[in-house]
Write a structure and sequence with these properties.
The structure is a homodimer. Chain A is an alpha+beta fold. In chain A, the strands form three sheets. The first copy, chain A, has a four-stranded antiparallel β-sheet with strand order 2-6-4-5. Chain A has a three-stranded antiparallel β-sheet with strand order 1-7-3. In chain A, strands 8-10-9 form a three-stranded antiparallel β-sheet. The longest helix of chain A has 27 residues. Chain A is elongated. At the A-B interface, α3, α4 and α5 of A face α3, α4 and α5 of B. The structure holds a DNA duplex (30 and 30 nucleotides).
Amino acid sequence: MTVDKNNLKQLFPDLEEDLYNEIIKHGIIKEVKAGDTLLKVGQTIRSTMLILDGLVKLYREDDEGKEFFIYHLDAGQACSLSMVCAAKHETSEVLAKALTNATVLAIPLGYMDQWMSKYKSWYQFVITSYRNRFEELLKTIDAIAFKSMDERLEFYLKKQVEKLGNNLKITHQGIANDLNSSREVISRLLKKMEAKNWLTIHRNSIEWLKKD
Amino acid sequence: MTVDKNNLKQLFPDLEEDLYNEIIKHGIIKEVKAGDTLLKVGQTIRSTMLILDGLVKLYREDDEGKEFFIYHLDAGQACSLSMVCAAKHETSEVLAKALTNATVLAIPLGYMDQWMSKYKSWYQFVITSYRNRFEELLKTIDAIAFKSMDERLEFYLKKQVEKLGNNLKITHQGIANDLNSSREVISRLLKKMEAKNWLTIHRNSIEWLKKD
DNA sequence: ATGTCTGTGTGACTTATATCACGGTTGCTG
DNA sequence: CAGCAACCGTGATATAAGTCACACAGACAT
């Protein structure tokens, strides 16, 4: 995949003309396959990443390697963490995995700083990015602090449907991992939701029916 | 309380000379009393806040008004959320309360933008602030996603001790609220910790003994 | 078709946490 | 001092979630 200016404008509107040119000039395109790890916990970050295509999943990892899903990044978004870490030459605190084949644009960290003072739109973009990620994190906290498993499951499925469509190719075990629960619990809860006609369960997939 | 440059330099090192002058010139000092609310959920934010003195507690609120503690801000820190919200004229997502009497410096949001491109040190400060808050949030997520109540309580008490000293003036109910648990549970867990000589329980206060 | 692997369904059980219902203590206030 | 309110301790019980054990079903290779 290649990037041209129109392409960029669609994904990242409201940037300055010159900035698009710079991005095209200095950004390094990377293609990753579904399932690939984009960012490991503890990895030093040398560039900011803009998602051009595909869907990326962010996880938090615990000591024993259990992966807790925190949020998605999709085309037109930036990995705020990579921004902030990059700016301080620090290491990653999260795990990022491509859920689908994806294309990302890596911006070497030098430009990040430079553009920040040179282009007001870049500064706006970074700040907005941050705010959005922060909000996602707060929503995640709400879910685990205040909600029970069935509500969290509903919330989770809705997020998936929003990004991936009504037909989710996912296993019960996969959901359990993302929510840091266990397969049996998820299976039983899904059963209840099926009884309420919110969804239908198939092998290796779930079809979401509920509207609102 | 008033601010002079030396004062500022101690609290916020590594900023440019001119920037200190601007901060003093344009910042508005606000004194708040212990227990006061600095920021309500849903409130529109018009300025960025720098904490000059005292300790502020940040909460996330649920639909029924339950308050879940997320992190502290103390002197020398900035409310990142106020920064990001300010930049977009948006409303607050969190609740901030002064735990002690506190002094904050409000920077009208216009300067926030201006300084961002004018002073590299300001940009660095904002980004660093962000990163730190983000990390706190991730730690909070770790705690609730992966840990059990006793571990969370320990983690919580340690954070309090770090900020407030070994003698915590707090009730069991207060802790329960912060952790979104119930008084009885906290009482019982504290009992166990007392048996392990980690702390001693007094009426209205807890004395932390554990070293490491 | 046979075996094997992965995904799913389900009952029985354990455990952590929440809730209920008390009773006791401290300390303030009229 | 009486009375009240806030704080704390504790047993009984309820509930949600996690764990264990096992059975079964579809997919796929040999």
